[in-house]
Amino acid sequence: MSTAAVTTTNLPLGPPVRGKVRDCYRFDSPTFGDALLIVSTDRISAFDWILPTPIPDKGKVLTAISSFWFDLLARGPRPVAHHLLSTDVDAMGLPADVDREPLRGRTMLVKRAAVIPFECVVRGWLAGSGLAEYRRAGTVCGVPLPAGLAPGGRLPAPIFTPATKAASGHDENVSFDVMAEAIGPALAAELREKSLAVYARGAEHAAARGIVLADTKFEWGRLPDGTLILVDEVLTPDSSRFWPAAAAGTGRVPDSFDKQFVRDWLEASGWGKASPPPELPADIVAKTREKYLEACRLLTGGPPAGVS
Q1: Is-contact 87 93, C-beta < 8 A?
Q2: 251 class by beta-carbon count within 10 Å (0-12 exposed, 13-18 middle, 19+ buried)
Q3: 3 state SS of 121
Q4: Which residues contact residue 45 at a Cβ distance below 8 angstroms, ignoring those fewer than 6 apart?
Q5: Which of 64, 77, 240, 278 is the most exposed place for a label (fewest CB within 10 A)?
Q6: Taking all residues of the chain, what is their mean pLDDT, rounded to a whole number?
């Protein structure tokens, strides 16, 4: 069972802040107080463009995976504080004139936090821009690495490589020292420690499900009382490279559980990336949807509620 794709929302909650995938509304919930409503749509982006064709249920997959991880990370010997309050739209205290049906399964009510203006990237395997830099200079984001590492190979140990948060376009990799100068060495060191710890916990769980967590990016924020919490999405196919474990360590970069079908099709389509992108064919949409769902099933044990 599935529902029609949701590409945009216009809720009677004031003007939203729209990202590439999410529509965010400030909402004073009668149950939870001053909060943020985050709706994950089925929009998909590639090469810094939002594509005209959505991937049905993608927003539900991202929400289900993030919710799973927030719950898992909050338990155990080193619990991680996070921003998620509820994913139950009937419990959020929304006004009566808000149509709840399009929001079900794709909406998070979260604590408002002052977001730290850096992406906290952790890399455990060699891929993407890190691989390109390693081939050129023997480093990843300025971090020296041993010679002879293969594409898609495991790093000697995970590394923390922050990036600046771009309002549009690509984030820019920066050194730890640049981050420390901007936000202070103590906070930078705390973010590095926490990010590496969350990556290790995520990689351990993923490995038990036959998946390699090659790299990921986290966002952190501060509550008014100063508490540092994990915000945004976490350990989803949009924020992470997940590979089938059987394909890792073979001397090539494996295909990820994400929008690889979309990227490959766009690269072969003749689109020049300087004008609006073309519509995606139905088979590419179907293959991409199934790849996201496969990641959800493997990581969380099943598909999002109401999706098959």
Answers
A1: no
A2: exposed
A3: strand
A4: 20, 21, 51
A5: 77
A6: 95
Tell me which residue of 222, 199, 127, 217 sits closest to 163, measured CA to CA. 217
Q: Are 146 and 140 in contact (CB under 8 A)?
A: no
Q: How far apart are CA 173 and CA 58, in angstroms?
A: 27
Alpha-carbon span 85 to 66, nearest angstrom:
12
Show the CA angle centred on residue 6, arms to residues 276 and 220, nearest 5°. Answer: 85
Buried (b) or exposed (e) across 164-201, using 16+ Cβ within 10 A?
eeeeeeeeebbebebbbeebeeebbeebbebbbebbeb
- Residue 274 confidence (pLDDT) above 50: yes
Residue 132 φ/ψ, nearest 5 degrees: -60, -45
Domains of the chain: 1-112 (3.30.200.20), 115-247 (3.30.470.20)
Instruction: Quote the CA–CA distance of 298 and 302 in Å, as a whole number.
Output: 7
Which pLDDT belongs to residue 1? 43
pLDDT at 216: 98
Contact 74, 82 (CB under 8 A): yes
Element spanning 180, H or E: helix 176-183
Query: Could you tell me how far CA 223 lies from the centroid of its own chain?
Result: 21
- The answer to whether the beta carbons of residues 264 and 252 sit under 8 Å apart is no
* 15 half-sphere exposure, CB direction, 13 A CA radius: 1
| pLDDT tens per residue, range 285-301 | 999 999 999 999 999 99
- Could you report the per-residue pLDDT of 13-33, keeping only the tens digit for each? 999 999 999 999 999 999 999
Question: What is the distance between the alpha carbons of residues 162 and 189, in angstroms, rounded to a whole number?
Answer: 11
pLDDT band at 165 (very low <50, low <70, confident <90, very high): confident
